[in-house]
Amino acid sequence: MGALKAWSRLERDEPIGVVALSGPVDPVRLAEGLDVLRGWGRPVELAPNLNSRTGYLAGDDEARLGGLVDLLDRGVRTFVAARGGYGVTRLLDRLPWERLATDGIRLVGYSDLTALLGPLAVRTPQVHGPMVAAGLARPENDRRVRLLLDGELCGGTLFEIPARGVLRHGRAEGRAVGGNLTLIAATLGTRWAPDLDGAVLFLEEVGEPSYRLDRLLTQLRGAPGFDRVRGIVCGELHRSRPRAECAKRWAELLLEATGDAIPVVVGLPFGHGARNLAFPLGVGVTVDTRRGAVIWSP
Description:
Layout: E1 16-19, H1 27-38, E2 44-46, H2 61-73, E3 78-81, H3 97-103, E4 106-109, H4 114-121, E5 126-128, H5 139-149, E6 157-160, E7 166-168, E8 171-180, H6 181-187, E9 199-206, H7 210-221, E10 231-238, H8 243-258, E11 264-265, E12 279-281, E13 284-288, E14 293-296
Parallel strand pairs: 1-2, 1-3, 3-4, 4-5, 8-9, 9-10, 10-11
Antiparallel strand pairs: 5-12, 6-14, 7-11, 8-13, 13-14
């Protein structure tokens, strides 16, 4: 397991950059989210490609990569993605990784951004959370991101675990890893795959029927280090239909994949649903089902 990195809070008047690395951004949702972001009282810097569209992408690869680099050149070190969709995996082998590591870049995002959050979290803790045009406008989500970035959640409870959400009791400590299951699976076999050894694995998914959940989790089970995962914490299976059948099968698959040794929790408020509470990746966390909590343990 890689060494855990220290969390650093936002500096006073530190700018926030908005990047569009994936799909094209809905202008109405973008405007709503930008209003929220500007309400933080910090300078907000926008990537030049934010309103671009090239098919199913927010501009071609050069434009999306250039938007990130442009903000780096303006001194931005903390970014909130505009939205997910698809596109990040196309950029992974072209990103300025040394510069990102040296500058201590931090990104807030989820869904397609999972593919980038994982490699970044090896260097600096990252944030799995709502994006400007995808959830940030909800007050509860907005408040949670601000608390996290300001360092007020460090060492505290990230999630309460309801009794109905415990599939297997236990206590586990490890490095927070994960995000969207499809995107994690998409990186397996590449140099961008997550280090699962000693991890507490966070998973969420959207719109996948039972057989696809089965296929994705079966693929993940074969990844190096999966047998040394210390705990699994799941968010929503949003829009998986039929809902009850998918939830039942998902629970069966998780228990089957993990033997008898580790705690498994489902149904926490993160992912593609309306409640998408931000949490850090690359930091130490503790899952304690008897206490009923997922705790940030720096």
